[in-house]
Write a structure and sequence with these properties.
Elements lengths: L1 H19 L3 H4 L8 H14 L3 H7 L5 E2 L11 H14 L4 E7 L6 H21 L7 E7 L10 H7 L1 E7 L8
Parallel strand pairs: 2-3
Antiparallel strand pairs: 1-4, 2-4
């Protein structure tokens, strides 16, 4: 009985010590610093989106497209970019395109792989409708495995919900 009383007293003292150890400063919420990777990605996309299609073909750097939460439908801002990508592929028949679908951390792993693949497939479907040969395009889904940022704020999750494009001159039968 003495041991139980002692443990109960010790627990109570520990709780009191924890409660009185907090200062007013600890209770204040501090503003979180934004991840610089989010701003870098936005700036990179703006610069690339404003370049002519011929420059994309030379540099092989294309902007990524961000998606709304849980959406497969390409956003309206994607269509001018996709039209320029179709132009790049039409101008240079040696180029191939890899489309990578990414998601944020919300949802199961299986669902996010499906969602990333569906987003990439939607991009491929549009490019094929613009005259690009489907055999020149490959899609991959990385789900939530390759985030730009680990920031779980709405801005961080939006940055991770994206489709990225990579131009390559390698033949598909080659190892890449």
């Amino acid at each position: 009985m003495k041991i139980k009383s002692f443990l109960l007293l010790l627990s109570a003292l520990t709780l009191v010590a924890c409660a009185t150890g907090q200062t007013e400063e600890d209770e204040m919420t501090r503003p979180r610093k934004a991840d610089p990777a989010i701003a870098e990605q936005k700036q990179r996309n703006e610069v690339l989106a404003n370049q002519p299609a011929k420059k994309w073909g030379k540099t092989k750097k294309l902007p990524s497209i961000t998606y709304e939460f849980d959406s497969v439908r390409p956003p309206d801002k994607a269509y001018p970019i996709l039209d320029k990508i179709a132009q790049v592929l039409e101008d240079d028949p040696t180029l191939h395109l890899i489309i990578e679908g990414h998601t944020d951390v919300l949802g199961s792993t299986e669902y996010n792989y499906w969602l990333g693949a569906s987003r990439a497939a939607a991009m491929k479907s549009y490019l094929v409708s613009r005259g690009v040969n489907a055999e020149r395009i490959r899609i991959h889904s990385y789900g939530k495995d390759r985030p730009i940022t680990l920031d779980n704020s709405p801005e961080g999750r939006e940055a991770n919900r994206r489709v990225e494009f990579k131009l390559t001159t390698r033949k598909w039968r080659a190892v890449y």
